[in-house]
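ingest -> validate -> predict -> emit
validate: passed (alphabet ok, no gaps, 542 aa)
predict: started
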Amino acid sequence: MKGFDFTTDHWYVNDVPGDPEQRNVRRQVSGAGWSPVEPTATGGPTLIAHSPEVAAQLGIDEDTVTSDQFARVFSGNELVDGMQPHAMNYGGHQFGNWAGQLGDGRAIALGEISTPDGGHAVLQLKGAGPTPYSRGADGRAVLRSSVREFLCSEAMHHLGVPTTRALSLTLTGDDVMRDMLYDGHPANEQGAVVCRVAPSFVRFGHFELPASRGEIDLLRSLAEHTIRRHFPHLLAADGPDNPSVPDEAIVAWFQEVSDGTADLMVDWMRVGFVHGVMNTDNLSILGLTIDYGPYGWLEDFDPGWTPNTTDAGGKRYRYGNQPQIGHWNISRLGGALHSLTQDSEPLQAIVDSYSERFAQGWDRALANKLGLADADVVRRREIAAELLDLLPLTETDMTIFFRTLGDIEVSEVGGVDLSADDSTLIEPLIGSYYSPAELTGELLERTATWFRSYIELSRTAHQTADARRSQMHAVNPKYVLRNYLAQLAIDKAEAGSYDMIPELLELLRHPYDEQPGREQYATLRPDWARTRVGCSMLSCSS
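emit:
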């Protein structure tokens, strides 16, 4: 495709009632799922990074990507014919408390298009200016947060984790005032815009808001839009022609949303991802990872770690609590949908089924991460449970530890010598510990005992070394977007050098591959990053 010959197909704004008010002023918006609003033009947009994969999926050729028009369009400075820009209206529970109306405060959807492969995509600009939902903010985003969202969106996709994608990262040419840590020290930062791409950006909070207001017609409109457009397989053959979606389809849809959320939590836990702000307005109805703010990677396996400075006290959104928060959020969604069905019991049964769905998925994920999928189930679960107890006792790099396990030769001939003393025995694991000297006494003994049991059980699988390594390396990434790597890319970008962004993007496109020559990106977090802002401490503006 030369230029922007998009085939627009605006599902959401066509299906869901819109705001009749045309003025872009902050306000409460009732009875509407969206408000018309155009991006605010900026001083001098400059494209600094893009995803060639996403561009190709949207039918945008590389000549168009490098054009000045591309930077103008995906910074919000120019609209393409057929676009229908809007901001979505939704509410949500934030940190466990009902927050009322929230909405897209700094995200503006340009519209929806049909993709060349027969798919559907919403093009949304994050940082494109104020909307009726901005709540007094400026609607802008800064370079550092935009770099993080751009890279992480693509990194998660290639890890196999459902996520929104990122098409482009554009400098606006304008500065933005931000107090990074909310500590009374605001400063000017470079403004930027990320173009996010997803089949839909509908969230749990879309349903919570009209339910809280008693706007049942809007609630039903949202549910019917979502089911007809994104879950059509739940309708009978004549479903699209029926005047309304039946109760049984709503229940079946809620089951899929619950299952998808549980599965997403498994994926997050599998790769060591911590979202940091799992409010109900940040949970996708499609089971996608959305809204990359104060996220982080679990470099030290500490189930109590949260990257969000706002959450530092209560640690509601800590790594180990994410599955439970997913369950809590599902229960909030179920409560909102109650008004649409005659019987609440099926909805409650689905809420109750969430924990089992997660438990089964996490059990399978751990079995695969340990290379024990074919081993005795009882013993495998015992070994997995003991490992999860052991890892937090000394600072252990989660990614390196599990990757290392896959490289260990477990055969009786030429493999690990189980008769060796404890210190010698665990030598293959030492590279995953930040302070190996701590492995003494009872901790050393427990670690060695676990390792012997693990090797013994691994031998019962009777896999070849190559088959075992391939299977384990397919689920245990070597490369993730470590917090300090993202910060290094930000540091360079803020200094005017953008080369590290596409470099990391290419690295993260192949997270499970060895990638000779790039081993420096798969090492322990450096000491300087332990406490540095941006590497260990992040705010919602990050």
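The first helix runs from residue 11 to 15.
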